[in-house]
Q: What sequence folds into this?
């Protein structure tokens, strides 16, 4: 699941924050990316790798 939060900061312009929430088994991991004046980007590959590690750790 992912969602964005927008606000305006007087000196910096538009604040755009991206939240990504991943549930793997009984663990919830959150990732955030913050940027001003442009949409934040977040590479999904590290999130997928981390979710796989969490899943493997819970299987042991």
A:
């Amino acid at each position: 699941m992912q969602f964005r939060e927008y606000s305006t900061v007087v000196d910096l312009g538009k604040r755009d924050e991206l939240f990504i929430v991943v549930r793997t088994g009984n663990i919830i991991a959150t990732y955030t990316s913050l940027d001003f004046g442009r949409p934040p980007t977040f590479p999904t590959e590290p999130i997928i790798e981390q979710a796989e590690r969490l899943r493997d750790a819970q299987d042991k």
The mean pLDDT is 84. The first helix runs from residue 44 to 59. The beta strands are 2-9, 13-24, 27-36.
